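User: I'm preparing a small set of examples for a lab meeting where we compare how different chains pack in three dimensions. I only have the primary sequence for this one, and I'd like the structure in token form so I can line it up with the others. Please keep the answer compact; I'll paste it straight into my notes.
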Amino acid sequence: MSASLAAFERPRGGASITVFKSGPLFISSKGIGWKSWKKRWFILTRTCLVFFKNDPQRGDEDEVNLSLGGIELNNSGSVVIREDKKLLTVLFPESDGGDFTLKAETSEDLYEWKTALEHALAQAPSDAIQWRDKRTAKSLVVGRPVLLALEDIDGSPSFLEKALRFLEEFGSKAEGILRQCADVEEVDLRVEEYEEGRKTEFGSDEDAHVVGDCVKHVLRELASSPVPASCCTALLEANKIQGKEARMSAMRSAILDKTFFPEPNRRLLQRIVKMMHTISCHAQENRMTPSAVAACMAPLLLRPLLAAGECDFDVNDGDNSAQLLLAAANAANNAQTIITTLVEEYENIFDVNDDENLQRCSNVGSPGTRDDHAQPDDSSSLALDPPQIRNPDTDQLEEQGKGNENPINEVAKGESYGSMGEILSTFWGRSNQVRSMEYSVDSSGEEEVDIQRLEMTKNDLQHRIAKEARGNAILQASLERRKQALHQRRLALEQHFSRLQEVHFTRS
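Assistant: Understood. Below is the structure token output for the 508-residue chain.
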């Protein structure tokens, strides 16, 4: 075994990177259209495991053999094998990344790869300390859930909401806004200043391109996609409809359908598209047309559409890298077209009346809308008391009941923060005006959390059922096409056989 290990550790071709092992393994990935195990050429180093379609050292000079993918390694991984099925699985702690499974051709290859991987993992870099540091210093800006993208937990405008307002007010006329990139260090510094409380507001003298990149950075690091995969699929189908009016109607239906699109996600999308619409209205000054703005923002808003496997695409069977590149290009074009339509037809697709509600919701708790003489108390501020959320006092509920006659005036008078029940109810499409006062008084914060959790579970199940139904429909359609093709093939063979018989009888 020592001789084989020496072979693993021998550098190739004088390269400085140590190759522990290289050779064929089988990989399966439904995400990029493969429906069975595919044989690929793997190369294992100290830091990663990359794979190619063929052995890169034996390929023709004219043949392009790009790397199809790779897996970063760290020393927290462990190797598990299933000898009966020749499966090789590398396990990582949940914090370090996902597991992956490969399949060897023979049992001998299985154990050789196991030994090589164990040696590579032992020498791989450690991410544990960095991960703990990141967990300890949890960001107040990036990595937030969609529910808190526009508002902080106390109801005040979030970093993202403030940045969007700045772009609408001061950045809409900056040439190349959202397209022209700022210095990465300046973006990180601006986020750091906000998190440390040194600069919590955006001034009119700030660099619009830095703020624009801050917006894109926050959207990129959201805990989940602003537009879920189910709605991406619905928008993709709507985009294929011929006729502008019918296409817009289908897109509007997809966006307003809570089965596909939860209320927090819809509000976030509408807020972002509203900012994009404002910028595109100044295209003569900033040279950012709706199509140009969409090209910059579509990959951030429609993540599942560009992530292979999360949406249903018409990708032919096979593993040709050219087909995968073509599918990726088509997905990017579709995403840009969808967002362009949303920006151009913003007032027709979205409910513009919600803009006022969005503004009111995001203004709650902001310095410009508070009463300077109002005394903070537990009934008017949003407070979290784990494991349950406190309810407002009865007096506050009575004031809200009276304020239902003219909610806009109540906000104008400086009502500070709404209760968590109000905010969550607004997000999930429920109105406190519908509830009776007795129900509001008797319901506890813990029950409200349970209700929200059940609704989220219900929506998740509905999304899964809808996705399964679409998958079944696609499979059924594919089966019908294959049956039709086989039937046509059979008819062609019968005709060919008849011609052969005629020729045979003629000759005889």
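A couple of notes for your slides: Residues 96 and 149 are 25 Å apart (CA to CA). The beta strands are 19-27, 38-45, 48-52, 67-72, 78-82, 87-91, 100-103, 384-385, 388-389.

User: Perfect, thanks.
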